[in-house]
Write a structure and sequence with these properties.
The complex is a heterotrimer of chains A (about 300), B (about 300) and C (about 450). Chain A is an all-alpha fold. Chain A has a single domain, classed as MetI-like (MetI-like fold, Orthogonal Bundle), CATH 1.10.3720.10. Chain A is about 70% helix and about 0% strand. Chain A has 13 helices and two strands, in the order αββαααααααααααα. In chain A, a hairpin with a 7-residue loop joins β1 and β2. Chain B is flat. Chain B has 14 helices and one strand. Chain B is mainly alpha-helical. Chain C has about 450 residues and is α/β, with parallel strands linked by helices. Chain C has two domains: about 170 residues, D-Maltodextrin-Binding Protein, domain 2 (3-Layer(aba) Sandwich); about 210 residues, Periplasmic binding protein-like II (D-Maltodextrin-Binding Protein, domain 2, 3-Layer(aba) Sandwich), CATH 3.40.190. Chain C is built from 19 helices and 13 strands. In chain C, strands 2, 3, 4, 7, 12 and 13 form a six-stranded mixed beta sheet that branches. Chain C has a four-stranded mixed beta sheet with strand order 9-10-8-11. In chain C, α9 packs across α11, α11 crosses α19 and α18 runs antiparallel to α19. Chain C starts with a helix and ends in a 16-residue tail after the last helix. In chain C, about 50% of the residues are buried. Classes of the chains: A mainly alpha (about 300), B mainly alpha (about 300), C alpha/beta (about 450). At the B-C interface, α7, β1, α8 and α13 of B face α1, β1, α3 and α12 of C.
Chain lengths: ~300, ~300, ~450
């Protein structure tokens, strides 16, 4: 039979310390070795000119100067990132808000809509990109050009040609992301106490006014979270461009992530590529901090 | 028009929009599913039509379906990619949940010097994009491989067994290490918040019963934490199953590729051979597991998003 | 006693092998296990496939019992090899789209000269170097050493279906005027004159360079190759670009700019586009799709009226280059296998199986060749000399960023030919000013063959 024995305090403390170390040690070690250490190293790499083959040469901020110089590929790439953040982002957010609001009215089939709209979100980005390549194809397989043919258009539209590709990605992004944000917003809306709306209705507020003065302010936090998700996702955009351009994006289609991949692994410009990744990190950091700042200022408690 | 009729117009329009979007969401995927039952010639001849397997069911009409899937599953090594994905993702997932809940439990329930620091360290990880780590990690892996070869190779050679070379590149273990390390910040962050909400009395009771810290954790706290752990598991599963960039950089050997990488290379093959039937079948095989997981667990998943949303 | 010890060692070995076997990422070569050398060969799996390479590897293994050839191919082989070079773990031998010049200058490629100066396989009275068609080994020379050898002889021509031409009474054009008139006739028949591999606008480069060659003497053509200042803004280069743009705007198949190479070539095979500019690999790339009765034939890029260039020069030369890596485990054996790939016997089987040409001298003599190949040989026989671009090999950044983009914009009619030329000149200027980029001495006009 076992009995709780009272041990001297020092012994128990030591046991507890041992426990803490044994539980915290492995995850922290793994995280430090494979995330923090390489992340710190990135800053060091970005200060060298290195082709991975010969000795690295110190260039200070030379890589960053080259990044912002005229004619660099960095600026078009970041423009593409901003396009891919804000154009599909704005559409996604408005659609998601609209759908969430409509579904929130307890319409019939609400559950079906929620489940179906979310589902493209679980398909891998590579599969999504391939699916849309098939939809856009200019050959007879293409779904969209086939529809246009039925409508009487004789010449196919080259949707995925590099000059059109970014626009072609807009519907794809909206298609795969809207459901996620709808579920997010729906959750926030369901959390708003019904009494607020009742009071507003007694005051004779229209449903548009209710949406503007109750729903939106009370889900502000979640909306900001959504914006942060979209911005960070837009800055890191890689998979679809890389797949749709067959691994070789051009200047009109490069994003920061595809650019740094091809700089490092295709052209062996490792310092330059790492400098781009540092800029990417700084942008993610800035976007997150700014959004959190905005969120705190406008926070409404209820 | 009466006022009451007018009141119906708005909702009706909105409802129509929902239905239209529903079709837009579901149709492309249905199209992929039924087109995968057609041969390339049938696809070229009639891109939208239903496959003969549906319009005229019979042994003959099932032929293209069987052929496409056999080609994808056997001929294009899809079974290999599938197994690789299962190995990498399941091992990663178990390790993430184990290590993540260990760290989160300690951070949520114990008071010690440096606790806030460690917690902040993990939160920082939420802000680090994959791309920042990718390049230095690539070279770090080479160095670690050389180092391990030196350390482990010496005794192996001394025993006269042979020459041992260890590489973290082109190995599932290397990819698993990355996946686990990269999933930890989000997992620890969420589970810490979750463990804080659990009642402390149960732990006290277990300790007083003499269970010891380890037993208390495994037999009391882990089961209590299950709802939170399941949600985290689903998120991590979807993220890792669909992961592309790390795999692209760290797996160069065809035999080791995971599903998204395999899918990308099959699409290349299919393009070279103009074999669209194969491509459609491959797409279906790649989509089915995540769709299945989603169907079964979608309530838990959306509840997870809800929880996450309200915590901010 | 001894017996026992051996058994213990065996058991230990088996145990260790089992333990290591379950850990992917570790490889164990057993000590003293028969001394077989394994050479890893990575091959770009494009239009020519890898069946021929595999059959040669099997023959090589039969001739060399101590060597195993581990040969694999992939359409995106470079995506797999490039990171492995950075890991200092490259395959032994590869044909891939690599930053070859960066590798050469950094000392990462293994010079082939020792092998080149040894007796050739099958013709032991001559060195390997002497069996190659003169000039084909010159593309990757640095500091007096040779770092790559081509396995194909390339030529850039315009392909058509003879049967279709007969049916409509069309003739292969010899001049640009005839070419445009022919295109108009095709359009009138409702057939798109030209298929184009628009997803990879780089397919236009060889055609554009051929048109430019038709306009100017070789001194000026090679001045551009030497990146002389002002070469791209030369009015004749602008004219070549404008001919290219007219061709794209008027005669490319609608939607071509979004098609991959195989998609567009399928359109050509299916008769919806009448002609396509391509290399000699086209037949093999499309062989499973070519319908019965299709009669592939080709003509060279037409002469431009009033041009000052040689009307019979042909864009072409060594292609499908292989190189051996300095960090390879068995570079000598790899170079020897490459020599075997280019033996007269292998070259003959290459010509027969893939319906194309080999850079080994005399490889078409005394063997039956197909009609398609005869039409190529006829073009080659009439040619006075071959010329080939090396800018896109030497200056990767220029090729990948400036050239690719500018061509896409030119062909889609987003920029004028003048703007196109200015962009290329600016890119060339940036290349000239960048001290990190290796630039060989100006070569001027090379000797004919």
């Amino acid at each position: 039979m076992r009995r709780a024995t009272r041990k001297p305090g020092g012994d128990r403390d030591r046991n507890q310390a041992l426990f803490v170390v044994s539980f915290l040690g492995p995850p922290v070690a793994l995280y430090a070795t494979f995330v923090l250490w390489p992340a710190l190293n990135a800053f060091r790499y970005s200060l060298y000119r290195w082709d991975g083959l010969s000795e690295p040469a110190w260039v200070g901020l030379g890589n960053f100067r080259a990044i912002v110089a005229t004619g660099s590929e960095f600026l078009p790439a970041i423009r593409n990132n901003l396009f891919l953040t804000f154009v599909p982002g704005a559409l996604t957010l408005s659609l998601a808000l609209f759908f969430a609001y409509t579904v929130h009215q307890r319409i019939p089939g609400a559950r079906l809509f929620r489940i179906a709209f979310f589902f493209p979100n679980v398909i891998s980005s590579v599969a999504v990109a391939l699916l849309w390549i098939l939809i856009y194809s200019t050959t007879d397989v293409g779904l969209l050009n086939g529809l246009l043919r039925l409508l009487g258009r004789t010449e196919p539209i080259a949707f995925t040609e590099s000059g059109n590709l970014l626009w072609a990605i807009v519907p794809m992004s909206v298609w795969s992301a809207t459901g996620f944000f709808m579920v997010l917003f729906l959750a926030a809306m369901e959390n708003i106490p019904e009494t607020y709306y009742e009071a507003a209705r007694l005051d004779g507020a229209s449903s548009a006014a209710q949406f503007r003065h109750i729903t939106l302010p009370l889900m502000w936090d979640v909306l900001t979270t959504g914006v942060v998700f979209l911005i960070v996702g837009g800055l890191k955009f890689f998979d679809a461009i890389f797949v749709m351009e067959n691994g070789r994006p051009s200047k009109t289609t490069h994003t920061l992530a595809t650019l740094l991949y091809s700089k490092v692994f295709q052209e062996y410009n490792i310092g330059y590529g790492t400098a781009i990744s540092v800029m990417l990190f700084l942008l993610v950091l800035a976007a997150t901090l700014v959004s959190l700042r905005l969120m705190r200022r406008e926070r409404l408690e209820y | 028009m009466t006022a009451s009729a007018l009141r119906w117009v708005g909702p009706a329009v909105r409802y129509a929009c929902l239905i239209a979007y529903l079709v837009a969401v579901l149709f492309p995927v249905c199209w992929v599913f039924y087109t995968s039952a057609k041969s390339t010639q049938q696809i070229y001849r009639n891109p939208f039509g239903l496959p003969p397997a549906i319009t005229a069911p019979g042994r003959q009409s099932l032929q293209p379906l069987v052929e496409n899937y056999t080609k994808a599953w056997v001929g294009s090594r899809f079974s290999r990619y599938f197994i690789n994905s299962v190995i990498v993702v399941s091992t990663s997932l178990v390790s993430i949940l184990m290590l993540g809940s260990m760290a989160a439990y300690v951070l949520a329930r114990f008071h010690f010097r440096g606790r806030t620091f460690v917690h902040m360290l993990f939160i920082c990880g939420l802000l680090i994009p994959v791309q920042l780590v990718l390049i230095p990690l690539f070279f770090q892996f080479s160095d670690m491989g050389d180092w391990l070869t030196r350390i482990l190779g010496a005794p192996v050679r001394a025993l006269g067994i042979g020459d041992l070379t260890v590489s973290l590149h082109d190995s599932h273990i290397g990819l698993i290490l990355i996946y686990v390390a990269f999933s930890l910040p989000f997992t620890v962050f969420t589970l810490t918040a979750f463990f804080r909400t659990l009642p402390g009395e149960l732990r006290e009771a277990a300790l007083i019963d003499g269970a010891g810290e380890y037993r208390t954790f495994f037999s009391v706290m882990m089961p209590l934490g299950r709802p939170g752990i399941v949600t985290i598991a689903i998120f991590n599963f979807l993220g890792l199953w669909n992961e592309y960039l790390f795999g692209l950089v760290f797996l160069n050997d065809d035999r080791l590729k995971t599903l998204p990488l395999g899918l990308a290379s099959i699409s290349m093959q299919a393009q070279y051979k103009s074999d669209f039937g194969l491509l459609f079948a491959a797409l279906v095989i790649a989509m089915v597991p995540t769709i299945a997981v989603y169907m079964v667990l979608q309530e838990k998943l959306t509840r997870g998003i809800t929880l996450g949303a309200l915590k901010g | 006693m001894i017996d026992l010890r051996i058994r213990t060692t065996q058991a230990l070995t088996a145990l260790a092998m089992a333990a290591i076997g379950v850990v992917p990422g570790c490889s164990l070569t057993r000590a003293g296990s028969s001394g077989v050398v394994t050479v890893e060969v990575a091959v770009f799996e494009g239009g020519y496939g890898i069946e021929w390479h595999k059959s040669v590897a099997r023959r090589y293994e039969a001739d060399h019992p101590g060597v195993r050839i581990n040969l694999w191919g992939d359409p995106r082989v470079d995506e797999k090899i490039r990171p492995r070079i950075l890991r200092r773990n490259p395959p032994d031998l590869a044909s891939a789209n690599l930053p070859v010049w960066k590798l050469i200058v950094a000392g990462k490629l293994y010079p082939l000269d020792e092998a080149l100066d040894s007796p050739a396989y099958g013709q032991t009275d001559r060195t390997w170097r002497e069996t190659m068609i003169p000039g084909t080994l010159g593309d990757f020379r640095y500091d007096g050493r040779t770092y790559a050898a081509p396995t194909a002889l390339g030529a850039w021509v315009c392909w058509y279906d003879k049967r279709q031409f007969r049916r409509y009474g069309w003739e292969p054009p010899r001049t640009w005027g005839e070419f445009t008139r022919l295109c108009e006739q095709m359009t009138a028949r409702g057939i798109a004159p030209l298929a184009f591999q628009g997803k990879y606008p780089g397919y236009a480069w060889a055609t554009l360079l051929s048109l430019y060659q038709r306009l100017v003497p070789f001194e000026r053509w090679y001045a551009m190759q030497d990146l002389q200042p002002g070469a791209f803004v030369d009015p004749d280069f602008v004219r070549a670009a404008s001919l290219m743009q007219q061709m794209a705007v008027r005669y490319f198949q609608p939607g071509a700019m979004a098609m991959t190479h195989t998609e567009s070539q399928m359109e050509w095979v299916n008769g919806r586009a009448a002609m396509v500019f391509c290399g000699l690999w086209l037949k093999n790339e499309m062989k499973s799709a070519i319908p019965a009765g299709f009669e592939m034939a080709c003509f060279p890029v037409p002469m431009v009226e009033g041009g000052k260039g040689d009307p019979n020069a042909l864009y072409g030369g060594g292609a499908e280059n292989f190189c051996v890596f300095a960090d390879a485990k068995h570079p000598r054996e790899a170079a020897d296998f490459l020599k075997y790939l280019l033996s007269i016997e292998s070259a003959r089987s290459y010509t027969i199986e893939l319906d194309t040409l080999s850079p080994v001298a005399g490889s078409t003599e005394g063997i039956p060749i197909s009609k398609e190949l005869q039409s190529v040989v006829a073009v080659l026989d009439q040619s006075t000399r071959v010329f080939q671009d090396r800018i896109s090999n030497l200056y990767l950044e220029f090729g990948a960023t400036v050239l690719q983009q500018a061509q896409a914009d030119l062909l889609s009619n987003r920029i004028t030919p003048g703007e196109f030329a200015r962009r290329l000149e600016a890119g060339a200027e940036a290349t000239r000013r960048n001290p990190d980029i290796y630039k060989p001495r100006p070569m001027g006009v090379p000797e004919i063959r």
